[in-house]
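Team,

Forwarding the record for the chain on the shared tracking sheet. I've put the sequence and predicted structure together so nobody has to dig through attachments.
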Amino acid sequence: MKQGLSLRVSQHLALTPQLQQSIRLLQLSTLELSQEVDQMLDDNPFLERPMDDAPREDFGLSHADTRVQEDDRQSESATSSIAEYAGDSGAGAQNDDAATPLAAEDAQSWDGDGTVEMAPDDNEWGVDAKAHGNNLDGEGDMDATELARHQESLQSWLHRQALGLRLSEEDAAALRFLIESLNDDGYLEETLLALAEGLAGTDDLEQLEAVVHHFTVALGLLQTLEPAGVGARNLGECLSLQLRAMQAVLHQGNAEPGAIVESVEPDPAAAQKLCIAVALRICAQPMDLLARRDIKHLIQLCGSTDAVVRDAIALIGRLEPKPGRRFVNVERNVVVPDVLVIQVGTGTLAKFRVQLNADVMPRLRVHDIYANALKAHRGGGRDSSNYAALQQRLQEARWFIKNIQQRFDTILRVSTAIVDRQKNFFMHGALAMRPLVLREIADELGLHESTISRVTTAKYMATPFGTFELKYFFGSGLNTESGGNASSTAVRALIKQFVDAETLKKPLSDNQISLMLKEQGIECARRTVAKYREALKIAPANLRKAL
């Protein structure tokens, strides 16, 4: 083996802390970004969120406590407002010396440029500060989607009803315990014995029996509260509780005095009573019979006619299988769009303007008081290490603001490219969606596919047809007879259109839908139709058939 020296030139990518932070911020959702911003505001003293809307001034240490003249204040508008320095800046300056320096290893993570002067980019960014290339054109901004108002929880609603019951202290405590043991759907998942053992243990059997007795009494009371069906242990019991509540209302209605029936027509109340009674018998049977709509078997088990059983199944279909569903806090399901698409003009002259949602853009800037204080107190000797650590923190705050701005810049660029490629969707809906893959947008913008994937994940766009995740606009293509491609999203929309227009007594099978798509010039196998139908949460033909 002969040894020697050689030179080789190569390129490699170094993932600096700034680049790592930029990649991580890009893939965060709106909620996660908000949490990241709050964490950074707590950790970095050089980062602040403006709280006022006064015009920007060149504050220095000598002007830290100077109040802004009232004549200089401008009213906030929807289209042009600049987040300004908070009025309590004087208090912040007094706490300047209390800033905690970074550790040595942290200080080496952010290599600054050696300066602490206030740079033009250190101004606040967010709210109405526009990202590079934002397509606002000076026109009015769209208001952000309002969050759903707070709703009363199921437990709170039940506790308020329980206040009207005259119960002993033990029964009231048992009822409160059962209410708190309900899940979000209003079901009591654990058995009364298991709940009692969790409280009383298994050592004292007499005490355990007493707790079970109180729970049994409380459960009976709980199942009489609104909404009907709450406190059930399974689906059959939930449906039965609702049917018994209907029976009680029907009985009270017939018990009203002065009701004289003179007609010889069949009594509708009697037919309704019979229907409810048969429905109760059906709910007492295994639920898989009802799910399969096994009419013949149910007729035998319930001892009724075909027509009454079908009416009973139809009645059960109108009941609520999850009584607590309407009490679920809808704020957890609210989607705040990152991008807004606004239509300008109508008809063939329609254009679509893409802009960032100002309500999801964090209001951030470098704390100018602290930055100027650091500049004026350049330390030496023992203070040099603290000065270097604080300088790194200042640079970290600058990079954080720039990376957030770059994140929104990239989201806007990708969203604009999507709108340009899918203009037919914004004019005609999902049926006009064209095939689109990540590589097309990546090649157009000069970005990597992984970057496009990060941008389109958990980012949402508000369109004239609703709010969609950016990934919704990407889809594979299916071959057509003309030699072109049809988007899988458009095919799914077409399948949904076919199902919505079908006859309920004779619903379309997957094979029939496949043949109908072929008539439209789209080659789509039956298995593909079944996959798309399941993705749309459409039941099979036998379950869609009307009774």
